[in-house]
Model the fold of this input.
Amino acid sequence: MRSEGEHHKNLDATLKGVIALLERQALVHQLVARTDTRKHALVQSLVERQHAVELEKKLNGLHPADAAFVLESVRQEQRIAAWLLIRRERRGAVLLELAAPIRTSLVALLEEPELVAIGQQMEAEDFADLVQDLPQERVDAVLAQLSTHERAEVQSVLSFPEGSVGAIMQLEVVTVRTDVTLEEALASLRRRGSLPAQLTSLTVVDRDNVLQGMLPLDRLLVGDVNLHVNEVMDAAPTYFLTNDTDDDAAEMFERYDLISAPVVNLHNQVVGMLTVDAVLDHVKQDSFKQALSQVGLSEDEDLFAPILQSGRKRLAWLGVNLLTAFIASRVVARFEGSIAQLTALAALMPIVASIGGNTGNQTVALVIRGIALSQLNTSNMLFLLRKELAIGIINGALWGVACATVLLYHSVGLAAVMASAMVLNMLVASVVGVACPLLLKRVGRDPVMGSSILLTAITDSMGFLIFLALASALLL
Done:
């Protein structure tokens, strides 16, 4: 069995080989196009076909996840060229492994007959994930060509709002009735011929498909075959409603170490199963989204997107940051006279602003984590604020004295101002770090993105204001 390091090494080598073939193919196309010969078209066709065959062999010999990695790691024009060489019967599996923005762009290239064929091969929940971003008229046209049962399942998944358990659950559920014996339950499993992945328990239902409990496979396999299911099942299982949020589901899976759990509707009837792989996919996507949000990027950002397209998406973020920087510059401008009289202030004030920003970012990260895990409530918010203020005072005093000692500039007064400003700005940062995510969450905005913008603006502006005001009042 290959180690993870060997796998990555081989995959990197494959990626380099694919890129080299794509670039060689493009180069040959350019050179042949400049050749003045009547056999121009034939030469070009033969050379490009030779490279295409080699590329096709490489791409179709990869695991779907590895093929997806290759597609994500090349420029857009190379991506489309490589995508067209992947065999039609493999495209559905590769699409499922791609990042959302790239998957959406490639699905849009598929013709209607191929979309229909993929829909007939895939599970309903997977196909719904592929087509959800297509124009509604295309979705309707494709669904109209599926069987009644397939169409109903896909429409059922599409009907659940994004971010709900219903949108990420799988529809296939292995159920067993409460009144059958373990021997009869085993016989029904054998008749199925195959079982879903991550199946560790059977979902126990009554005649109306209402959830009654869960039967772990180990109890089924080693229990007395004459016992009835209701005698050995877990009668109080963890389950989810279709309208529960996927964040809550992820928290429950982590807390109780779940592998899978049934999903029920408002009538407590079993309609699906939530598995750990779907939850992990959500957690990974959410972490990726938060990492991008912190720097003002959306989750559909493509590393190899065209320059203008990527530039437009970053304009708003840069504009907001420019505004906050302008506010900070206006604060500094009010104290130009003080800075002119004591030039050391210009060198020291960025330190005060920077330490406040770092303190605030630490607090923001903790508060956002507490929000995500539902650990914050009205009874403990005040305690958290007091705690962060106390930490700000302690760290501000320690590092303020340390910086003042090192950057003394032969002035005890300047050192005292420096230390005091650091303490005060760290207190401001602690308050903002606690308050911003909570306020943004309350008004329905993204705490990750909004908190970063507000924190930067306030800690920079207040850091400059506090330091320069103290210096002007005490030293000049």
Remarks:
- The chain has a mean pLDDT of 84.
- The longest strand covers residues 211-216.
- The domain at 4-168 is CATH 1.25.60.10 (MgtE N-terminal fold).
- The CA atoms of residues 31 and 339 lie 63 Å apart.
